[in-house]
Design goal:
It is globular and about 45 Å long. With 218 residues, it is mainly beta. Helix content is 0%, strand content 48%. β2 and β3 form a beta hairpin.
Length: 218
């Protein structure tokens, strides 16, 4: 058992190509890198440090091409870039959302990452410059905006998959920022909040999980 967080654990991810380490995010405002062979914390990012998150951390995503770097999303409406070798301070803080950042995911090229938020938008950021590159806003009226709960990218980087609290799952064109398809139109949308989604290793299938107790594969 790995013990060290002082709040609920919101997400976890194994370090790519390394089965002995994983990273977790928590309601205690921190992210922890663990050595699972010893059960010890290798580094703690955030917490009492001034550049850390000021609210619950909801999601983490590791850079597939540089496993020392990861991004985190928080209820403080920001995403932050971290280097596990210098855990005492965030490398960069990314602003723009107006609600909890519920999901973060690295772009396959490792130079960009996406976010999904309770403000109903997804965004794409450049790691190197800190600039916001794109905003993916639902084509609904402002009074009918569903929260984004989870996101994933296609292997080609051209598509962004986003799950929403109303059970929809949109497929976005990452370059043009328009909806290619609402997967709910292919078959009935989930009857509850989409809580997670995952892409198959070869990119040919997407699975969504929901509070309606069902999984759907597209």
């Amino acid at each position: 058992m790995l013990s060290g967080h002082k709040g609920y654990v919101s997400s976890c991810q194994y370090v790519p190509d390394e089965d002995t380490h994983l990273i977790t995010s928590s309601g205690d405002h921190t992210c922890i890198l663990w050595d699972i062979t010893t059960g010890l914390r290798t580094s703690v990012s955030g917490g009492e440090f001034q550049s850390g998150h000021t609210a619950d951390v909801l999601s983490v995503s590791l850079n597939g091409s540089n496993s020392r770097m990861f991004v985190s999303g928080s209820c403080d409406a920001t995403a932050r870039l971290w280097d596990t070798r210098v855990a005492s301070r965030a490398v960069r803080t990314f602003y723009g959302h107006e609600g909890d950042v519920s999901s973060v995911k690295y772009f396959p090229d490792g130079n960009r990452f996406g976010t999904g938020s309770e403000d109903g938008t997804c965004r794409l950021f450049d790691i190197r410059t800190g600039h916001q590159l794109q905003v993916y806003k639902q084509p609904n009226s402002d009074s009918d905006i569903a929260q984004v709960t989870s996101i994933a990218f296609s292997i080609s980087c051209r598509l962004l998959f986003a799950g929403y609290a109303n059970g929809d799952c949109y497929v976005w064109d990452t370059l043009l920022a328009h909806v290619v398809l609402n997967l709910g139109s292919l078959h009935n949308s989930h009857e509850g909040r989409i809580s997670c989604l995952g892409l198959s290793a070869d990119g040919s299938a997407l699975c969504t999980g929901s509070w309606d107790s069902s999984l759907k594969v597209s």
